Amino acid sequence: MDDLVLRTVEIAHLYDLYKGLLTERQRDVLHLRLVEDLSLAEVAEELSVTRQAVHDTWQRTVTQMREYEDILGLRSDQLERGKLVEEILSLLDDKDGSTALIRAKCEAILSIGR
């Protein structure tokens, strides 16, 4: 995947996790850009503001959500849990998978974010 796609996926994931902490205006801008896939100009027209105002709100909000992630770590915890679940599923597919190893992976999942 190219860099732009990865950044967009990251921002969408952060938005899903932290949208409850954003202002109504921030949620509106991110929703219209990410979900409705509108351009900056289209969002500006929809919200009756300038394109620059939309750009500034976008930049500030992305920075703010990254700061939330640095402090709270919800996205990294979620990614780590997903990785462990994939490993467990792989062990379950393996006929020689050790029950003790599966138990250890489950305990690791439960301990994330504590």
Describe this structure in words.
By secondary structure, the protein is mainly α. The protein has two domains: 3-72, Arc Repressor Mutant, subunit A, CATH 1.10.10; 75-111, no CATH class. Helices cover 80% and strands 0% of the residues. The chain has six helices and no strands. It has helices spanning 3-18, 24-35, 40-47, 51-72, 74-93, 99-111. Helix 5 (74-93) packs antiparallel against helix 6 (99-111). The longest helix is centred in the middle third of the chain and has 22 residues, at 51-72. It is elongated and about 60 Å long. The two termini are 32 Å apart. The model has no long low-confidence stretch (mean pLDDT 88).
Question: What structural keywords apply?
Answer:
elongated; Arc Repressor Mutant, subunit A; mainly alpha; 6 helices; about 0% strand; about 110 residues
- Class of the largest domain, according to the CATH hierarchy? Mainly Alpha
Please give the alpha-carbon distance between the first and last residues.
32 Å
Say how many strands there are: 0
What's the number of structural domains? 2
Radius of gyration, whole Å: 19 Å
Percent of residues in helices: over 70%
Report the portion of residues in β strands: under 5%
Low-confidence stretches: none
Whole-number mean pLDDT: 88
Second CATH tier, the architecture of the largest domain: Orthogonal Bundle
The CATH topology of the largest domain is given as Arc Repressor Mutant, subunit A
Major sheet attributes = none
Q: What is the name of the CATH superfamily of the largest domain? A: Winged helix-like DNA-binding domain superfamily/Winged helix DNA-binding domain
Number of helices: 6
Backbone shape: elongated
Broad structural category: mainly alpha
Can you write the helix and strand succession as a string?
HHHHHH
